[in-house]
Amino acid sequence: MRKFQNISDRLIPIIFMLFILFAWQFVVSMGWVERFILPAPTDIVNALILNWSDILMHTGVTFFEGITGLLVAVVFSFAMAIIMDQFVLVKKAIYPSLVISQTVPIIIIAPLLAMWFGFGIAPKIFVVVLVCFFPITINLIEGLQSVDQELIDLVRSMGARKIQIFSKIKFPYALPYFFSGLKIAATYSIMGAVIGEWLGGKAGLGVYMLRARHAFALDLVFASILVIVILSIGVFYGIAMIQKAIMPWEKLKEE
C-alpha cells in the first residue's frame, strides 16, 4: 500500500504537468493565441534544439556563477552560524540586520554591484551569495540551537570540550536544518545569477534572454526559461542526493 502511495505521489504532478503542456499546445495550435505572443511547447523545443550550442555555452556560464556563489555562501554561512551560536551578544546584534537585509529587493542591489565591481563575473557571484546566504545561515543557526540543553550539559559534565560538543552533538543535529536551507538556496542560486546577468554581462542565460527578447524571439526566451528551470531542479536534486549520502539514517527513518 505504501509503495502504491509513493508511486501515485510521483505520478500526480507529472500527469498535471503533461495536462498543462497539452492544453498549452492545443490553445496555440488552434490559433486562439498568436505564436509571437505565446510560442507553443513544440516551438520552444525546436528553438532549443536548433540553438543548442549557443544555449549550452551560456548555460555553462550561469551554472558556474550559481554554483560558485552557492559554495561561497555555504562557507560564510557556516562561519556566521558558528559565531552566532557561540556568542549570544553577536547573534542579538546581527540577527535583526540579517532579517532587514532580506527586505531590500535584490534587483535594486544588483545595479550597484555592477557599478562598483564592473560587468565581469564577480558581481554575478556576489548576487548569488546575497540571495543564498540568508536561508542557509538562518536554518543552520536554528539547528545548532535546537539541541537539547540537557544533552549538552550531560556530555559537558563528562569532560567534553566545546569542539567535541560541536562536532559530535550540535553539528550532526543541525545537518537536516542545514540541508533544508541549502536546498532553498539552491533554487535561488541560478535565478540570482540570471538577475545579475540581466543588469550587465557578456554571457550567461540572462544575457541570452535579453538578446532574444530584443530580437522578439520569444521561443528562445522560453527555451532559456526552460533551461533555467531544469538547471535549478538539477541543483536541488543534486543536493538532495548529497544529503542522502551524508545522512543515510534519514532514509531509515522514512522506511
Notable characteristics:
ABC transporter permease; 11 helices; MetI-like fold; mainly alpha; 255 residues; transmembrane; 2 domains; MetI-like_sf; membrane; transport
Question: How many strands appear in the DSSP assignment?
Answer: 0
**CATH H-level name of the largest domain... which superfamily?**
MetI-like
N-to-C SSE series? HHHHHHHHHHH
Count of DSSP helices? 11
- Overall SS class: mainly alpha
User: What is the architecture of the largest domain at the second tier of CATH?
Assistant: Orthogonal Bundle
Major sheet: none
Helix proportion range: over 70%
Mean pLDDT: 83
CATH topology of the largest domain: MetI-like fold
Terminal Cα span = 13 Å
Shape: globular
- Beta-strand proportion: under 5%
CATH class of the largest domain: Mainly Alpha
Low-confidence stretches: none
Please give the domain count.
2
**Nearest-angstrom radius of gyration?**
22 Å
